[in-house]
Amino acid sequence: MKNSLKIKPGSDKPLLIVGQGLAGTVLCSYLLKNNIRFKVVDNNHYAAATHAAAGLINPVTGRGYVKSWMIEELLPEARSCYAGLSELLGIDLIHYPCIYRSIHLPAQINKWNASTSRDGYETYVEALKSQSPYSGLIKAPLKFGLIRQAMQVNISDMISQFRTYLESRQLLISEAFEHEAVKIKEICVNYMDQDYSAIIFCEGWQALHNPWFNDLPFQPAKGEALVIEIDNLETADILRDEIFIAPLKEKICWSGGSYIWDFEDHLPTEQWKKEWLDKLQGLLNTPFKIIKHLAGIRPSVKGRRPLIGQHPVLDRLYIFNGMGTKGTSLAPFWARHFVEDHLMKGTPVDDAVNINRFNF
Predict the structure, then answer these.
(1) Which of 12, 87, 95, 185 has a CA between 20 and 30 Å from the CA of residue 118?
(2) pTM over cut 0.70
(3) What is the pLDDT of residues 213-232, one digit of tens each?
(4) Which CATH superfamily includes the segment(s) 15-51+156-218+302-357?
């Protein structure tokens, strides 16, 4: 029978966190907040999804313009978490743009109007508009839908600066994790001759190579993106047409977000670049140029819900993973739940994200 650790602040044996991508960084921020000792093993993996992520939190998504899962609970925790990390690291990580949805067809107008009339949607959407900051820069749609309460988080800077923070406090083991070096003891787990109270794996898609959790239903998806410079762009708000255009700084934008399920490696591809350029050229009425081509692999999961919890047999091994494409919004809420409810109080991990929902 598994035991709940009920980790206490200031415990003599630290936790070992494996991976310092988005999930690992956010998880560590809650460990810091609760004075729980830890160390991190991370080799700054080149294929991590965070290298190509836009860091967007979009409250209303999809072709039916529906609210994102649990958005009322996720947004407040995300704001609090990233504000805390901004203060800790001394950098401004958060931007609060509006999102303008291009509406091209009468059927889309009907769907938008139906969404805006539903209870609870008035917080996030407004009635259709004829103009937007992108008017004149793109092929004119029939209307624009305005989405409020969005967030954009500078994930890349957050991770790199948090890595520096860990290094300065000697909390980072900067190397690849060696699974075969783990030794399970009765009251702790040993790694490289150091005892830890438990190991929490935040490896992203690399969990496919984890001997204890690789039977979970990961469906890794490669994503690619372009960083482009757009002439005449004078807004920090985001455009959502067939593709995203998300400003990063003056005239510099991120555009990407594809799902590639069948891929050979983590590298950017010329085929994707050509297809995306065709889309950009079909959308934009103003010149642009490519600054950078990015790619990364997301730890997507069957059912699109995170994978959190304790190994079914080895009670010193945990996983906090599977945040997928909406990781910017999901990670803070579930990290707080995992740390403050599960690890500290012994409360079961919520059924919606508990790995026990799968037989592995």
Answers:
(1) 95
(2) yes
(3) 999 998 888 889 999 999 88
(4) FAD/NAD(P)-binding domain (3.50.50.60)
